[in-house]
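Translate structure to sequence.
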């Protein structure tokens, strides 16, 4: 959750400009590669625009000198033109950050909000009553700048735990940041980059579906690379849509989509203090208001929302600190979808499995063991395991297989930072589920062994 962007000569110009005013939108602060497209195929169209593909929103990202070092953008803002139906799913970590508590309080009282502001650099977690006072001060300052109430604002923070936000830089930046709000793809990109920390790529995507004859868009941005084992229950995400929908249906849909996406990834088994996914629906698409998730329109929307969130979630696992591949675990034959997801996530989170994948070792016993300690009961005589196209175990019996070929599959996939596919069968039930993770490399230890020093 920290930030270690190295300084370089061109940073001096941005730093000097920032010294003259509170924020900068200089291009140098937003140069970062994009994550690959990992949205599954389906009856939706992938479109450009990220957070601003949907109608009814503006966004911006700025550099406000909030990071410990570097000039990468560090303050992001998404604003709805009018009241937007809001949903939020949050970490279950008892040491939850002040912005998490603030958001929960807002959403417990209101169905709609107007803005989401995110800072990178300090997590504002484990900061006590002063941390909450800082969060309130940010909401009040943004409310004043936008002309709205503080309880129409949601907050997100990411960075080093135990560090208060740099309020001397944060508060003066807010009115200047508001002045940079826009509705272009560039504005959406800056907003997506400004929430990242150790991320090596930006994570933004959008899809379009037809609902009631109207084009409905869903867009989103996410951050996360390390401290990733969400139990929403560091990663953050903001999702926008122009669909017209009731708060009750939107929140239920958002929770289910999160369970099948962000709650199905792991990088290192550590659940962040700040995990937050926020969804805003402006209603600007002009469709008939969706009041039933089980209706045809509701099903179309939920499928597209789930696909978008899965794409963003997979990009986080793909970008795991030190990772050389994305791991995709598919479990079938379970008694329920929930059981299948638990087993899949257990395999995705197994350090021994992750290390074996990094070493290109098709050590399938580690996969079987991780499934076995998931807490889900199944008959081991019905178990099967495969890596790529190679079957390693079937109906509880180990199979003879070409170890060189299986290892080469892992080598080739990791060499191109591709997706290693792992299949697990646990019976004859109808339950299927997926989870995503990444391999465990030497670089992960290097990155995290000196995170604050």
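Result:
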């Amino acid at each position: 959750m920290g930030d270690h962007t190295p300084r370089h000569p061109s940073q001096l110009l941005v730093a000097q400009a920032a010294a003259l005013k509170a924020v900068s939108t200089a291009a140098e602060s937003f140069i970062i590669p994009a994550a690959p497209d990992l949205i599954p195929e389906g009856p939706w169209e992938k479109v450009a625009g990220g957070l601003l593909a949907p109608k009814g929103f503006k966004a911006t990202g700025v550099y406000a000198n909030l990071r410990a070092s570097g000039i990468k953008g560090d303050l992001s803002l998404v604003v709805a033109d009018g009241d937007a139906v809001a949903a939020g799913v949050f970490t279950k970590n008892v040491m939850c950050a002040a912005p998490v508590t603030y958001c929960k309080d807002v959403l417990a009282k209101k169905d709609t909000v107007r803005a989401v502001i995110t800072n990178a650099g300090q997590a504002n977690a484990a900061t006590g009553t002063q941390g909450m006072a800082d969060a309130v001060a940010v909401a009040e300052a943004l409310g004043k700048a936008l002309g709205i109430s503080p309880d129409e604002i949601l907050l997100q923070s990411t960075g080093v735990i135990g560090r208060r936000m740099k309020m001397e830089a944060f508060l003066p930046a807010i009115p200047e940041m508001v002045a940079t709000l826009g509705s272009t793809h560039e504005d959406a990109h800056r907003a997506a980059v400004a929430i990242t920390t150790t991320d090596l790529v930006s994570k933004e995507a959008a899809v379009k579906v037809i609902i009631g004859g109207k084009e409905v868009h869903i867009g989103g941005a996410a951050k996360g690379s390390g401290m990733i084992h969400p139990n929403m229950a560091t990663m953050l995400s903001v999702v926008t849509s122009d669909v017209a929908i009731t708060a009750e249906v939107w929140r239920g849909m958002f929770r289910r989509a999160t369970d099948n996406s962000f709650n199905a990834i792991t990088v290192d088994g550590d659940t962040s203090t700040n995990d937050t996914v926020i969804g805003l629906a402006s209603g600007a698409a002009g469709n008939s208001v969706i009041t039933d998730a089980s209706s045809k329109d509701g099903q179309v929307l939920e499928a597209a929302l789930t696909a978008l969130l899965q794409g963003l979630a997979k990009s986080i696992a793909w970008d795991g600190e030190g990772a050389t591949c994305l791991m995709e675990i598919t479990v079938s034959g379970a008694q329920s979808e929930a059981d299948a997801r638990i087993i899949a996530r257990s395999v995705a989170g197994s350090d021994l499995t992750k290390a074996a994948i990094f070493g290109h070792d098709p050590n399938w016993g580690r996969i079987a063991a991780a499934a076995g300690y998931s807490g889900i009961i199944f008959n081991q005589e019905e178990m099967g395991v495969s890596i790529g196209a190679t079957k390693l175990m079937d109906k509880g019996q180990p199979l003879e297989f070409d170890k060189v070929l299986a290892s080469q599959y892992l080598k080739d996939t990791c060499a191109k930072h591709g997706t290693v596919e792992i299949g697990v069968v646990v019976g004859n039930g109808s339950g299927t589920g997926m989870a995503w993770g990444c391999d465990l490399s030497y670089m992960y230890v290097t990155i995290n062994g000196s995170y604050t020093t």
